[in-house]
Amino acid sequence: MEYFIQQFINGITLGGVYALIALGYTMVYGVIQLINFAHGEFFAAGGYMGVILLAYMTGAGYLETHPFLCIAGAGVLTMAYTAFLAMGVERMAYKPLRYASRLSLLVSALGMSIFLSNGLMLTQGVFDKPYPSELTHGGFEIGPISVGYLQVIIVGMTAVLLVGLNILVFKTRIGMAMRATAQDKIMSSLVSISSNRIIALTFAIGAGLAACAGMMTGFYYGSVRYDMGFVPGIKAFAAAVLGGIGNITGAMLGGVIIGMVEVFGAAYISGQYKDVFAFIIMIAVLYFKPTGIMGENVDDTRV
Amino acid sequence: MRKQLLTMLVLGLILVPFAVSPAATKTLRIGSMSPLTGPYAADGNDIKNGTLTAIEIFEEEGGIPGFDEIELYPQDTACDPKQAVAAANKLLNLEVVGVIGAYCSSSTIPASETLAEEDIPMITPASTNEQVTERGLPYMFRMCGRDDDQSKVAVQFIKESLNADSIFIVDDKTTYSQGLADGVEKECEKAGIEVLGHDHVNQGDKDFSALLTKAKSKGADVFYMSMQNHATGSLMTIQAKRLGLDAQILTQDANMHPNFIKVAKDAAEGVMVTFGYVDESTPEYKKYAKKFSAKYGEIGAYGTYAYDAATVLLKAIKESGSTDPEDIKAEIMNMNFQGASKMVKFRPNGDSGSNYIVFVIKDGEYVKYWDPAKGKL
User: Fold this and answer.
1) A183: domain range?
2) Taking CA atoms, what residue in A is nearest to B239?
3) pLDDT value for B139
4) What gap in Å lies between CA B328 and CA B314, rounded to an integer?
């Protein structure tokens, strides 16, 4: 039982990371029906920006005196930087293709993904960059079960961001504009909603969340690497599809399910098959419910 | 008319490379194969640089009679079997007389079969899988040790020095890492050490929490980690320490890398590693080290073996006065000299013996800890 609970905690942490990345996929898909394959690279870029900022803060000596302020500051700056990066990518690679076929957009996204990950490799090198993770290594014990502070932070942050995002999309005027753009770009522009601006905003929010996940992963695993975006990107994409692409709560749920299945597959069967289990679940769900778990009322609630 | 002239001109240009003889000087061509890009680029470049150092020292000491210069054609294998075979074919087209490489066993094995079609001698400085020299290829040689020797030393260490009764093994499923892990499992069973589990991860995985929780719940005395790459090894070490895995971590030669300590930091303290012993006090090592570090900086793990491998090849060509593979092989089999890494003496199957010892990471450095012949150092 302890073993089960310990693995459950591992699973929900991993699921939280996937969920944060999956949100970006699902939001962008909701608005312009594009699978943004460069999204995994936003995650990696966030991880790198975080480590660069923290290195400067360590150099200036602030990290030791004000660790939490520094990490929070680095987090905000990283999210902002990645949001701008995503808007730039959207402007260069997707906006000119707004009225082209969806296949051209997809190819453009794949190209952007390769460009960004190789750009990271060339500028940052092929080796892992270590995170100053000593600060967050601690944890506490509940009986025989050990929980890391970082695991609590990851799960907590994910929950807060989900609630925040739901409020943004369903309770604010911006959210209403986003939903309107998702439903009908031409119609919404007739009521003076700038669809270009809304699309850029969607990219920015999705990338900010991915950057947050990237930084937390950096702390959690202790290092970042130029190709770190690829595998989690694919998994998060699977999570978004599993939950019903276009649906925010679905992406969240999908992320947690994929994380759980992976961890329990590795825990009770074998570590080498964990990716297989993750994708089997996705295929099984899509077989019985092609729109994904929450994907029923796509037209009304998608972002 | 003008069109015909133009066509003639173009045709003429196409023929230039065939018509003009490039070599006014007589060049001895040798090839090297190693991953120059990708995650193993550091070790791969060490191999290339070690080979270049050998050539430089050889040329300074008089070169080879009958040849004006020695040229190296370094090829990138990226630790990919397909690319390794393509590199081997390219070297065949370049008409090299011998090849130093490759790095990953999964590259060396297919590449050596391509080279064997033209009887080109190949000396690997880094591939430790048994199969490299067990396939009956007449011109395949190995400068480094073998996995079955490494696993024997590891298990002997576990039994004699650590006095452990149980072990949990994990590998990441490459020819090399899984071969070694299987060897350790087999040796443990022979030695009466209980194997509580043998699990695998995929290359590129980052999250090992499930696997490590499993290992912790089994409560083994030793956690044996066989990884293709030190990046995976360091991630797993960090997570193991954080999860409170208190088994002794023992790992293998691929984790003998400065970056392993740089990434794992405090978590690396106390981790033990098996690696080939190099006596750094011999004049041969000092000569090599001086030349290498002056030009290429810090000496990596496999540069020394590559240096010895290239020296063996060049020496054989010089002393036999021939580039015929049969003559080269005869000369190599007769060799018995002190190299930079060890005493060079080959066995009939192409192996040159192993010299694994155990290192421990202490205060951010690899420190020699245990020798199978002498016990604790």
Assistant:
1) 2-128+144-301
2) A221
3) 93
4) 9
